[in-house]
Amino acid sequence: MSIFQHIKQAGKAQFKDRYTTKAAELITPWEEEIKGDIAIIGAPLSKPSISHSGASFAPDAIRRCLNSFTTYNIERGTDLAEASKTIIDFGDITMHPTSIEDCHQRIYDSIKAATKTNAAPFTIILGGDHSITTSTVKAIKETKGTVGIIQFDAHHDLRNTEDGGPTNGTPFRRLIEEGHIKGEHLIQIGIRNYANAKAYYDYAIEQGVTVYTMKDVRQQPMTELINNALNQLQDKVDTIYLSVDMDVLDQAYAPGCPAIGPGGMHPDELTQAIETALKHLKVSTMDIVEIDPTLDFRDMTSRTAAYLIMETLMK
Fold this sequence. Notes:
Layout: E1 27-29, E2 38-43, H1 58-65, E3 72-73, E4 78-79, E5 87-92, H2 100-116, E6 122-127, H3 132-144, E7 147-152, H4 171-177, E8 186-191, H5 198-206, E9 210-213, H6 214-219, H7 222-234, E10 239-245, H8 267-277, E11 283-289, H9 300-312
Parallel strand pairs: 1-5, 2-5, 2-6, 6-11, 7-8, 7-10, 8-9, 10-11
Antiparallel strand pairs: 3-4
Helix pairs in contact: 1-9, 2-3, 3-4, 7-8, 8-9
GO molecular function, one term: formimidoylglutamase activity
Cofactor: Mn(2+)
Family: Belongs to the arginase family.
């Protein structure tokens, strides 16, 4: 018997249960002609963040957290491995070391190219901060047509660009002002007290944006709220995009968000919202943004993001 029998190779799992499949095992690196159920692509950009942020580390952290989940859903009696569900991974977009504008252009080019491959019917972009969404939505519009957005967020992200340029506080204002979306095609859910300036709420209303505050979330069943949003958009747009800023969660559940605060959603509410939205045939793209793994106690926020990826595999 070899004296090295109990020494594991670097990078290999220390323990493997023959009956257990981890979600990370469903990931296949993208190659031409390979198809899957969902595709993921990392947009590791956090230089434009208003708050100090290490969100550029989030795509790898979220992928790593997929190893925390098995493929079996006990409530639905479904095993994703037995159903041969697959995640096509395009990897991470390489960012320019200094130019934010160049980074945004690379994100646009890469998302457009990835979408054109038709590698999967559903695509998830792993941010990065929320500034990436202007580029991703622009790319989706050019490949899939008119875009409607359901945004889960504590903030409007409708800040003016004159005071700070294309920061993570400006993505939806930039989309509206550059003509990529109409204000009436943007629905914001989870907007919180003391998180925004009145001027940006006024701008939202002027542009026809639908705003649901956390009071609305607390007083209305989540399934009803999401179905209302879907019904509002479905006849006006070609595709529906979910933008998930993880700071929509209460600070108790999202320690890894740079802009945490009290009064936010419970993870179960966010999961139910995504699960409900995914049932609609026009929902085809989602981003998950604003996680800083350097602040994230025991990967709490990244694990929630990974859990949302698991839900998309049930689509």
